[in-house]
Amino acid sequence: MLNDEKSLNFIEEIIEEDIRNGKHGGRVLTRFPPEPNGYLHIGHAKSIVLNFGLAQKYMGKTNLRFDDTNPVTEETEYVESIKNDIKWLGFQWAEELYTSDYFETLYGYAVKLIKKGLAYVDDSSSEEIAASKGTPTEPGKPTPYRDRSVEENLRLFAEMREGKYPDGAKVLRAKIDLANPNMHLRDPLLYRIKHAHHHRTGNKWCIYPMYDFAHGQSDSIENITHSICTLEFIPHRPLYDWLIEQLEIFPSKQYEFARLNLNYTVMSKRKLLQLVNEKYVDGWDDPRMPTISGLRRRGYTPASIRNFCERIGVAKRENIIDVGLLEFCIREDLNQTAWRRMAVLDPVKLVITNYPAGKTETLIGENNPEVEGGEGERSIPFSNELWIEREDFMENPPKKFFRLAPGLMVRLKHAYIIKCDEAVKDSEGNITEIRCTYLPESKSGEDTSGIKVKGTIHWVSVPHAKTAEVRLYDRLFNVENPAAEENFKLTINPESLQIIEKAYAEPDLLNAVPGKGYQFIRKGYFTLDDQQSTPDHLVFNRTVTLRDTWVKEMNRE
Ligand code: ATP
Ligand code: MG
Question: Closest residue (by CA) to atom 23 of ligand 1?
Fold first, then answer.
């Protein structure tokens, strides 16, 4: 389906051109090729939404291919988490494939290149090879092994496979052009020896293909039509094309877009792994991590992440996206979908002196006032003793304080108008109780009091309150570009996690379900911590505040 209504991104333009020209019979097959050496992060989400999104738009398909050519860093745990995260984001791959399944085919391709005189076994050390490659302005020099005969190369390469040589003793290189201005064409490495256990092939192999001799070939084996990667691979493209041409295999094509960079975030898997291993965070799914699993645990929804990825678009030049945009996207989603609840995070007791002690009244609140019908309602018990936020009372308030102070009136959400009479203090002057009277005729929905008040505050009935631990998260880093620091770990925000051990929640929050967003009225959006919350010990994570407090702070500066 060609779509002319909305402007196309440059990759869509290419695909539509290909479809018009009948290339590959109009077929579109993309792939998402993660290396299973870590958990997926928001940058990967960008690539997933792009690859799967294009296939959906053009009635094509997307393969999930694990790019598992490096036996040392890869693990099955990562494979499972990657599959789980892609499904959670809402996408389904056509086939689940592994580069390691192609090792035999790739070996055959290497033999074919050797037979064509286009590859040779080099005994030089990696330092010698680096030194002989020259510089961008100076041509490289051949090593003494460049002109080995086809027969000798075939024999040595077979012996490499058989395990006759130790790591680093030999490599297989393509024989292209040692003077090419593109360094990637100066006889690039195709295979290296690595005696290591592989998570899928075990000890079957001790030689492993390099990225450049695996990626494009795998694309071709799968008949991928559009192989989309990030800008750093532009200089690899001539090699991608050269190998496919010399091997005379399916002509997949590579296209490059700008990777997603987010401020106040690190995104390389190596750095994220350090945060996990050195216990700066509580695992890959810590709610402060930019991983998909961290964002999920934090309360991000799949729709908000897809939306974010679509909003930032597909760029041809490097840029940095403000993490505020990601927060905007989840706020926008939760405003429409989160159920409203009341919870008091910094409690002080309020007593209604003219309400019968021991009486309980059941009040009603809509789950979601943003949608027609409110998505149903829940009951909220009310009594003469309530928890309210300490900050909602002031003894000597400034002029426009529309909350509680002696003599002032507010509405209790879903309940009555109350008038504050006095605050009771202990011997050290700390407020222990706020005493009020209520207007019986002012009940929400049937108010005949005729009194208008400016402020509404939230509350939780003391005898009915459920205690909950509440975790308030903030940005993990204090600087915009932590990756540019000499030691990015020194820029970790020491206040990125604040734990409230005993907050009070309205009893319906005992029914909270993992993955669902709740707006704690006036306090922010929260979700149940699906790892650590139990019915006996509720734990809620703050997904995001109601408003962007960082924008406010930045404007103040
Ligand atoms: P990292 O640098 O974090 O280790 P990577 O590129 O090595 O990432 P891969 O597992 O190889 O991670 O990535 C799988 C796919 O996701 C690749 O096609 C890669 O281009 C893409 N990808 C990775 N990071 C980003 C990003 N920040 N923005 C967009 N795409 C990304
Ligand atoms: Mg990679």
Answer: 44
The enclosing domain of 303 has a CATH number of 2.40.240.10
When pLDDT is averaged across residues 490-498 and rounded to a whole number, the result is 97
Q: What is the pLDDT of residues 422-468, one digit of tens each?
A: 999 999 999 999 999 999 999 999 999 999 999 999 999 999 999 99
Q: Which ligand is nearest to the CA of 33?
A: 1
Residue 76: the pLDDT is: 87
Residue 280 Cα to ligand 1 middle (Å): 23
CA of 98 relative to ligand 2 center, distance in Å: 14
B/e letters for 249-258, b = 16+ CB within 10 Å, e = fewer, are beebbbbbbb
**Closest Cα to atom 10, ligand 1: which residue?**
34
* Mean predicted confidence (pLDDT) in 369-391: 96
Domain closes at, from 208, 226, 257: 257
Annotation marks residue 269 as catalytic: yes
Specify the pairing of strand 207-209 against strand 189-193: antiparallel
Give the residue, by CA position, lying nearest to ligand 1 atom 13: 34
Indicate whether 253 and 282 sit together in one domain: no
Pocket perturbation via mutation, ligand 1, pick of 31, 42, 44, 89 by most ligand atoms within 8 A of CB? 44
Cα of 123 from ligand 1 centre, angstroms: 32
Average pLDDT over residues 138-164: 98
3-state secondary structure of 257: strand
Mean residue pLDDT across the chain: 95
Q: What is the pLDDT of residue 74?
A: 75
This prediction has a pTM of 0.94
Are 24 and 18 within 8 A, CB to CB?
A: yes
Q: Quick one: 22 and 98 in the same domain?
A: yes
Is 35 assigned a catalytic role? yes
Kindly indicate the confidence band of residue 549, based on its pLDDT and cuts at 50, 70 and 90. low
170 is catalytic: no
CB-defined site of ligand 1, < 6 Å = 33-35, 43-44, 46-47, 67, 229-230, 259-260, 267-269
Catalytic residue among 23, 194, 259, 489: 259
Tell me, yes or no, whether 21 and 122 share the same domain: yes
Residue 3 lies in a domain: no
- Among 12, 9, 5, smallest CA distance to 56 is for 12
Write b or e for each residue in 3-38: b if 16 or more Cβ atoms lie within 10 A of its Cβ, otherwise e: eeeeebbebbeebbebbeeeebeeebbbbbbbbbbb
For residues 514 and 530, the answer to whether their CB atoms sit within 8 Å is yes
If you average pLDDT over residues 84-97, what whole number do you get? 98
143 Cα to the center of ligand 2, angstroms: 29
Give the mean pLDDT of 270-294: 97
